[in-house]
């Protein structure tokens, strides 16, 4: 009976992990509303040398029906990507529906911003933007890779596993990088607290010395000493 319970718990744990992984994949796809020239930015933590692919599609609000319809050709979407060092690694104007790609050159938080151009098609309406961001091996179209390189099913599976191992290695390196940054920040904070305590002690000693000297001068002036 105990073995059966343990087996059920393991099965539930596996189902839970699979559910969480699938949920994380779904969270990459979203939609949002923007007005004319309004900027929307998203922050993604990305390891270095990692491929990122974003697919988007714009829909224009229809005041008559209250819904959204395919956007007009005059509407464009500007995509801007900033790396953790503040450097712009992608800044380009695309059409109302498209795909953008970039490869990270430094680990950390990348800021991905999208905003539309000014167009006569807006007329005060809003845009609904569907955005799907894929990172790492999830950004690779393996069907296209297999067709282009003429890979068998087994070779394609091996290729996927190798890419997954490489991505896991990058994630581990990124976690080590974050731990190192956190350790440096903690040490810097501790050092500042130490020097602040030393400065406070020095100020208190100086004030005590000044008060004693002032009291001594006061007593001498009153001829009490």
From TrEMBL:
PANTHER family, per database record: TRANSMEMBRANE EMP24 DOMAIN-CONTAINING PROTEIN
Residue ranges crossing the lipid bilayer per the database entry: 12-34
Protein name: Transmembrane emp24 domain-containing protein eca
Coiled coil start-end: 144-171
Compartment(s) where it occurs, according to its Swiss-Prot or TrEMBL record: Membrane
Any one annotated GO CC term: membrane
Chief location: membrane
Similarity comment: Belongs to the EMP24/GP25L family.
Entries under Pfam families matching the protein: EMP24_GP25L
Domain GOLD positions: 39-135
Keywords linked to the UniProt accession: Coiled coil, Developmental protein, Membrane, Signal, Transmembrane, Transmembrane helix
Protein topology in the membrane: Single-pass type I membrane protein
């Amino acid at each position: 009976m105990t073995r059966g319970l343990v087996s059920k718990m393991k099965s539930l744990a596996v189902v839970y992990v699979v559910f969480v992984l699938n949920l994380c994949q779904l969270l990459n796809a979203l939609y949002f509303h923007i007005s004319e020239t309004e900027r929307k930015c998203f922050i993604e933590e990305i390891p270095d040398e990692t491929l990122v692919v974003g697919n988007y599609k714009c829909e224009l609000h229809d005041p008559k029906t209250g819904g959204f319809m395919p956007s007009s050709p005059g509407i464009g979407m500007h995509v801007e990507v900033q790396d953790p060092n503040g450097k712009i690694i992608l800044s380009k104007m695309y059409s109302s529906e498209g795909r953008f790609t970039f490869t990270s050159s430094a680990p950390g938080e990348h800021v991905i911003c999208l905003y539309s151009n000014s167009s006569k098609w807006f007329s005060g309406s809003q845009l609904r933007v569907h955005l799907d961001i894929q990172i790492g091996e999830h950004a690779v179209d393996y069907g296209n890779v297999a067709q282009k390189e003429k890979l068998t099913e087994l070779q394609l599976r091996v290729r996927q596993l190798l890419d997954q191992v490489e991505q896991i290695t990058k994630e581990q390196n990124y976690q080590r990088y974050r731990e190192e940054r956190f350790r440096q920040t903690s040490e810097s904070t501790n050092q500042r607290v130490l020097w602040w305590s030393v400065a406070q002690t020095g100020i208190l000693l100086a004030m005590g010395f000044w008060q004693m000297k002032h009291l001594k001068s006061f007593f001498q002036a009153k001829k009490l000493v």
